[in-house]
User: Fold this.
Amino acid sequence: MRLLQGLPLLAALLCAAAQQAPKPPDAHDGERKAYNDIYSSKRDTFNSSPNAFMVRMISGREPGRALDVAMGQGRNALWLAARGWVVTGFDISPVAIDEARKEATKQHLRIDAIVAPYEEFDWGKQQWDLIVFSYFFPQSVLPKVWEALKPGGLILVEGFHIDTARVRPLGGGYHNNELLQVLKDYRMLVYEDVQDRQEWGIPYGATNRLVRVLAQKAVPLPPGCSWDGKSYRERIDVLAPHPMVLRR
Assistant:
């Protein structure tokens, strides 16, 4: 009987102990703190204007639904929203997302800004007309990116070439033509390997070698072949040379 009477007290003690137990470490805590620090006190290290390559490539295009990956303070998301795009963005830094939301309110723009690491973000399926990767392109998410893009959707990437590791202590970057291979399933619309003004790590050189890509997920073609309204069977054989070619 005494044992039964003591069970509620034991349960209460166990519950209190569980609530006081230390939480497991957050795998993203260090990265989150680093970016919080950058966005709150080290603004001279990055460009706060919209990405110049994105502006050049997207200006004049029909707006749709856009996703801004690692959006920071929203420099790209806000530019897109001002031009009629329905924009969602996410970033690991709560400080950055808070500033993006405030700036959107100030400019009377609507963006959906989410605090999340890329591993936990719900990319969805066939819902984006444009996905922007500005100086952050985790290639492990490529299968999700392909599924998330609508047919005909665009992927825009800008980042450092590996050669910049010689002048930037942070290192990293793309090798020669690496993104051509990484994005081989896409239709390559624009590929640039240029020396230009970088938008991150501004103190590290007046210019850096940058790699830029605009690529498109293919639109499935209807089955069959037709010409002038008439169907024909596709030929994959190699045509013989014209007889005139064989004459000497």
Q: What stands out?
A: The beta strands are 65-69, 86-91, 111-115, 128-134, 149-160, 187-196, 208-216, 225-227, 230-232. The domain at 29-216 is CATH 3.40.50.150 (Rossmann fold).
